[in-house]
Each structure stands twice: as structure tokens, then as C-alpha cells.
Amino acid sequence: MAIKKMSEPNEGIKCVVDTCEYYMKGDHCAAEKIEVEKISTTDSNGTDCSTFTRKGMF
Fold first, then answer.
1. What is the dihedral of CA 31, 48, 44, 19, to 10 degrees?
2. Is the predicted pLDDT of residue 1 greater than 80, yes or no?
3. 52 with 34: CB under 8 angstroms?
4. Most exposed of 17, 24, 42, 54 (fewest Cβ within 10 Å)?
5. How do residues 9-51 score in pLDDT, each as one tens digit?
6. Alpha-carbon separation of residue 9 from 4, 15, 30, 38, 42 (angstroms)
7. What per-residue confidence (pLDDT) applies to 28?
8. pLDDT score at 46
9. For 45, phi and psi rounded to 5 degrees?
């Protein structure tokens, strides 16, 4: 899944994973879109952001 990195934060998406390529200062996400995966979970700890890309990979 190729995700465009925006120059401005994607409003409404909070991200605290500062090791992600899409992380922006202030706990914002610069990904054009995100995808969250996990079927049949009962809380947020059971979900995964498949958009995550480690900083410096590209």
C-alpha cells in the first residue's frame, strides 16, 4: 500500500509513534490515509496501524 506523505498534518488523526515516517511534531500524522487492521478485537490494544513505516526506510 503506497501512502502519500503530506506536508501538513492529517487533521483528526493523532499519532504518538515518533518512530513512524508519517509522525509529525505535536503527535500528528502526515499520512494521506491510514489503514487499521485486526478483526474481532474488543479494545484498541488489539488493533494495528498497517500504515506504519519506520523512519528512514525511504
1. -60
2. no
3. no
4. 42
5. 999 999 999 999 999 999 999 999 999 988 888 887 888 888 9
6. 12, 10, 5, 25, 29
7. 97
8. 81
9. -65, -20
The one-letter code for the residue type at 48 is D
Distances (CA, A) of 3 to 8, 18, 31, 47, 58: 14, 17, 6, 19, 12
Q: What's the grid cell of residue 9?
A: 498534518
User: What's the chain's length in residues?
Assistant: 58
SS (H, E, C) 1-58: CCCCECCCCCCCCECCCCCECCEECCCEECECCCCEECCCCCCHHHCEECCCCECCCC
